[in-house]
Amino acid sequence: MKRRVALTLLLAAGLLSGPADGAPEGTITFGLHVTLAPRWFDPGDAEPAITPFMVLYALHDALVKPMPGGLNTPGLAESWTMSPDGLTYEFLLRKGVKFHNGEPVTAEDVKFTFERYRGGAVTQLKEHVREVQVVDASRVRFHLKQPWPDFMSVFGTTASAAAWIVPKKYVEQVGDDGFKKAPIGAGPYRLVSYKPGVELVAEAFDGYWRKAPAVKRVVFRGLPDETTRAAALKRGDVDVIFQVSGPVAEEIKRTPGLRVVGPVTSGVFWLDFTEQWDPKSPWHDRRVRQAADLAIDRRALNQAETLGMSRLTGGIVPRNFEFALAIEPSPYDPGKAKQFLADAGYPNGFDSGDFYPYPPYFSMGEALAGYLQVVNIRSRIRTMERAAFLTSYREKKLRGVAVVINGTSGNAATRLAPYVTRAGAYAYGVVPEIDDLFQRQARELDRAKRESLLHQIQRMVHERAMFAPLYELSPLAGVGPRVEQPAVGLLPGFPYVAPFEELKLKKP
């Protein structure tokens, strides 16, 4: 029944009309480095990672979101205010804004969206928000249990997707599964068709409030293999490809008509030693984790993967984030790494089990595993598709070493929360003292004191060698000759396309 209702509504809204015969004019095709997971079409399920926003910025819109003008930029809400006591935030919705099915965006949709939200940072949000109150059709209030200085940093950035609004009536009619199959949003593009895991086609939504998109149609095509993506770009089958390594980027640069862009992002790569919390594991010994940290030649890795464009770091928080503590990367010293292993009781190294590269950075994973092999930390590479990797990581099923990246925006607190706190989606264990400091900073209204607490947390994470940070990523994207403005890098810290309505094709 739910499926029938979804189909009826989509047909009525004209969302399932197929593309015309042949390639329509005004189309940009993206070659993605991942297969498309339907849960990324629903803001309510967005994990604490930047990947879902690759699609959310096209199909949906938020009350407040990062845009070229800043981290907290008015979207569906034209303005908002905070009460003097810091306990109430009121959002005023824009007049005349509609979802793709023609229904208006109302305060009821905002309340419904928040209450059904189960994605990244959900525990923090639900712990701090006491009630969402509908004042009238265009005004909604968020009442906090106590002042929380990070409310807008979590709610109004890519630290969560709780502010990305879905239509209450439609979701209730089709159900959560029906919504993932046929999402309706309020973004610049609306769904035309979806081939599971392979391709998503979306057309410009003429009623988008900000501005009419310049490109009529966008196609997301899953091409996880890097050489396949590059070949498709050269043939003209796709117009923009993401996540290309150094050698492939060099080849693209040498190809007439093609170019490479490397935006500055909020993404940081690191190794997560998921078994460090197990007293029986070698990773439980800090010296073993320090050995792994020293075994990595970050400069060589950066050159090979991103043509040296990324920035080496010793912390998991980007240096340009508010409250970030700048930590220098560890030197490359395999000799000292072997000494640490000997001191820990492993003079001949050990078998560390599985090693999980972050999809699709498999060549990077092989290089990292190779560095560990040099100091006799032996492992087995296990590759996964990205959606499956993130699910397994969140469900605490990755045992051994995982290569991790987080590219969400926010500040030091929002970056640390998923990995070092008791409510963290990806925290395999917690240091009680660190968790206590985090809870204290979340309540602290004095900025200097908050900064001091967050610096202390970052220092402790570093001193305990909980992770092995690698670099702040500058991901490389290849752009074809038809594209004038790929909209990659317009949004500070964002590795994909945004805003989609800024895409432009060259005139014939």
Structure description:
There is one protein chain. With 508 residues, this protein is an alpha+beta fold. The protein has two domains: 2-219 and 479-505, Periplasmic binding protein-like II (D-Maltodextrin-Binding Protein, domain 2), CATH 3.40.190; 268-472, Dipeptide-binding Protein, Domain 3 (Dipeptide-binding Protein, domain 3, Roll), CATH 3.10.105.10. The chain is built from 16 helices and 21 strands. It has helices at residues 2-13, 53-59, 107-116, 122-128, 151-155, 168-181, 226-235, 246-254, 286-294, 298-306, 334-343, 362-374, 386-394, 412-420, 432-443, 447-463; strands at 27-32, 64-67, 70-74, 77-82, 88-93, 129-136, 139-144, 189-195, 199-204, 217-222, 240-244, 259-261, 268-273, 311-312, 350-356, 377-381, 400-406, 467-472, 476-479, 483-485, 504-505. The strands form five sheets. Strands 8-9-10-1-11-19-12 form a seven-stranded mixed β-sheet, with helices on one face. A hairpin with a 2-residue loop joins strand 2 and strand 3. Helix 1 (2-13) packs across helix 6 (168-181), helix 9 runs antiparallel to helix 11 (334-343) and helix 15 (432-443) packs antiparallel against helix 16. The longest helix is centred in the last third of the chain and has 17 residues, at 447-463. The protein is globular and about 70 Å long. The protein starts with a helix and ends with a strand.
